[in-house]
Specification:
binds 2-oxoglutaric acid, DNA oxidative demethylase AlkB, oxidoreductase, mainly beta, 4-stranded antiparallel β-sheet, binds fe (ii) ion, 7-stranded antiparallel β-sheet, Jelly Rolls, AlkB-like, EC 1.14.11.33, 217 residues
Length: 217
């Protein structure tokens, strides 16, 4: 018989924090699914391992990445793009598990976007010190769909700005189970992650895991 310590606990209360028009943080939205989601990440990683990709400018990214879905986001000296095949394995990326798509769709709905059918899940692993500089997610053919981002493990400071790199940014700490949804007039907002501070999390040890769901076409 399996015994789940948390089986009888009430799901945690979801707290909404509006960041900007079309952009919201849903605190704890996927917290109760952490173990199942991280198990799915582990099975993706077995098939398509984490790797440090190279930017078009020739720098290795500090964040290690992999993908699941019909396409995966990749970068190398040739540029940023979506690719049907994992360049490391030469094979298609593993599929997005139904639980992951379902939760991403529900989060998008809570964010006010009811038309979302994700076909890419980019998985980021931030070791201590890893960061993601301010950028726009703009490699998707269709930017009418939102981005849904789920965070696990070590906390990180998420920066969320405006449509220009020079716009001021809001900072918010994302912790395990938090989901950020941005779309509509905020879809092309600049955002990033400050270097992850040293720490230990019992579910992810010395790293942060982030999943961003996208519908690229
Ligand atoms: O790690 C995060 O919270 C954001 C990730 C991100 O912006 C991206 O993968 O494009
Ligand atoms: Fe991004």
């Amino acid at each position: 018989m399996t015994f789940d310590l948390f089986e009888h606990l009430e799901p945690p209360e979801v707290v909404r924090e509006e960041l900007a028009p079309g952009a919201v943080v849903l605190r704890h939205f996927v917290l109760q699914h952490t173990k199942a989601i991280l198990a799915q990440v582990a099975s993706v990683v077995e098939y398509s391992p984490f790797r440090h990709m190279t930017t078009p400018g020739g720098y290795d990214m500090s964040v290690a990445m992999t993908n699941c879905g019909d396409y995966g986001w990749v970068t190398d000296r040739q540029g940023y793009r979506y690719s049907r095949k994992d360049p490391l394995t030469g094979k298609p990326w593993p599929p997005i598990a139904p639980l992951l798509s379902q939760l991403a769709i529900e989060a998008a709905e809570q964010g006010g976007f009811s038309n979302f059918q994700p076909n890419v899940c980019l998985i980021n692993r931030h070791a201590i010190g890893a960061k993601m500089s301010l950028h726009q997610d703009k490699d998707e053919k269709n930017v009418n769909y939102p981005i849904v981002s789920m965070s696990f493990g070590l906390p990180a400071v998420f920066q969320f700005g405006g449509l220009f790199r020079s716009d001021s940014v809001q900072k918010c700490v994302l912790t395990q189970g938090d989901v950020v949804v941005w779309g509509g007039v905020s879809r092309l907002a600049y955002h990033g992650i400050l270097p992850v501070k040293a720490g230990y999390h019992s579910d992810t040890q010395d790293c942060r895991i982030n999943l961003t769901f996208r519908q690229v076409d």
